[in-house]
């Protein structure tokens, strides 16, 4: 009855969504009687039927377990062949218990699918997800991977409906399921929940971040790793979570995932997670020693624009933190980025056609140039020409101003500009 009540509530929410956005599907900005919302209705009906079948199976399994238990309780060991029969009954009971557990997992998965279908029934939600792309876009060079907010409280409540009904601990237990399909679906549910800031604290407190890191450590399946890395990227928006990820060896796990990945979207998720960590001043040395910076530069070879924008954002974050440390006197010497060979890539992409990549790399150059100790390397590496271009042609006034101020405040840059007879 609890399951059927949940279905009823989800169906009522779906009907409300359908009434709110019209009974017809939205196709290319026009309304059609045979649109996507109608197909979702069919899917909801199909999942409802599957769920009912699983509930019936579970009920039958429970009845059979009870019968076996009664038989076992009434069995007399003194009868002939008693020991053998007892062992046989115990094995049957164990088999039925395993079957019950499997059915419970399937019921939980079907409930989550039903919740997701209710969400997807809303065309505005679907369009919003297509713009944001798997939970984050990387539109800010600061420490956050941003995701588009849901449109209303109804959608927020729908997306959290599953963990409120089932409980986070049970969802996390599915991450260790022997069934790969159950495991993959469970990590998708966790990632979906992690995309909402309101859920992140509860996920971490319940051990979800530890479970996600375990998936990177234990499983070779790239689909599982990709979705787990995306969830970690969203959880890494919080400073306390960033330090927890580092303490659990998460930087090296992300670097290992990047090295093994073949799908650009896996690299995008991993690069997004590392880029968030690069915005934390306390993690600078760990990012270098545990392979985070090296992993970013290796992922840059992918050439996929989504991956490159996350790599560039991570480098800009790291350069900003490094510049701040130099200003506060907590760091001396050349930039780690320069020492690790990132400068040629930064210079090469400072005039990239993609605006996000260009803006991140322009900012990275400006941050690196703010300290005299980097000036000679930047001149020999061709960065001075890019700084001059940025000071003149950058579409953003704040970056133009930063580049000009950086060039005029550096005696090394000023001497080289005078030698080349270049006026700002």
Automatic annotation (TrEMBL):
GO terms for molecular function: protein-membrane adaptor activity. InterPro entries: ARM-like, ARM-type_fold, Armadillo, Vac8. The keyword Coiled coil applies. ARM repeats lie at residues 166-208, 207-250. Keywords: Coiled coil, Lipoprotein, Membrane, Repeat, Vacuole. Its main location: membrane. It is a lipid-anchor. It is found in: Vacuole membrane. The keyword Coiled coil applies. One of its GO terms (biological process) is nucleus-vacuole junction assembly. Residues 44-120 form a coiled coil. PROSITE patterns: ARM_REPEAT. GO terms for cellular component: vacuolar membrane. Belongs to the beta-catenin family. This is Vacuolar protein 8. It comes from Actinidia chinensis var. chinensis (Chinese soft-hair kiwi).
């Amino acid at each position: 009855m609890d399951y059927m009540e949940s279905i009823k509530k989800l169906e009522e929410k779906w009907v409300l969504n359908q009434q709110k956005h019209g009974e017809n599907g939205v196709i290319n900005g026009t309304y059609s009687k045979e649109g996507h919302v109608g197909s979702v209705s069919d899917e909801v009906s199909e999942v409802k039927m599957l769920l009912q079948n699983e509930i019936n199976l579970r009920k039958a399994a429970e009845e059979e377990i009870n019968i076996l238990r009664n038989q076992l309780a009434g069995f007399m060991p003194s009868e002939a062949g008693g020991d053998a029969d007892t062992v046989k009954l115990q094995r049957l009971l164990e088999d039925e218990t395993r079957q019950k557990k499997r059915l419970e997992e399937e019921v939980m998965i079907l409930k989550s699918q039903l919740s997701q279908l209710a969400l997807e029934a809303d065309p505005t939600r679907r369009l919003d997800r297509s713009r944001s792309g798997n939970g984050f876009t990387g539109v800010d060079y600061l420490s956050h991977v941003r995701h588009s907010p849901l449109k209303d409280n109804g959608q927020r409540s729908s997306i959290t409906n599953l963990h409120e009904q089932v409980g986070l601990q049970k969802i996390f237990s599915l991450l260790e399921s022997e069934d790969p399909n159950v495991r993959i679906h469970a990590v998708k549910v966790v990632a979906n929940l992690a995309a909402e800031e309101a859920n992140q604290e509860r996920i971490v407190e319940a051990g979800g971040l530890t479970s996600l890191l375990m998936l990177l450590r234990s499983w070779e399946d790239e689909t599982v790793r990709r979705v787990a890395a995306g969830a970690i990227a969203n959880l890494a928006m919080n400073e306390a979570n960033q330090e927890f990820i580092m303490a659990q060896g998460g930087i090296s796990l992300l670097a290992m995932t990047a090295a093994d990945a073949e799908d650009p979207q896996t690299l995008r998720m991993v690069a997004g997670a590392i880029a968030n960590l690069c915005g934390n001043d306390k993690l600078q040395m760990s990012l270098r020693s545990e392979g985070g910076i090296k992993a970013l530069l290796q992922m840059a070879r992918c050439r996929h624009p989504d991956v490159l924008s996350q790599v560039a954002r991570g480098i800009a974050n790291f350069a900003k933190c490094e510049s701040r440390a130099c200003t506060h006197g907590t760091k001396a010497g050349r930039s780690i980025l320069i020492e690790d060979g990132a400068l040629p890539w930064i210079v090469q992409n400072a005039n990239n056609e993609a605006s996000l990549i260009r803006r991140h790399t322009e900012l990275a150059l400006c941050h690196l140039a703010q300290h005299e100790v980097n000036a000679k390397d930047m001149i020999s590496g061709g960065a001075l020409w890019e700084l001059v271009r940025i000071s003149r042609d950058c579409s953003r006034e704040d970056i133009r101003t930063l580049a000009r101020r950086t060039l005029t405040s550096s005696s090394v840059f000023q001497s080289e500009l005078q030698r080349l007879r270049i006026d700002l």
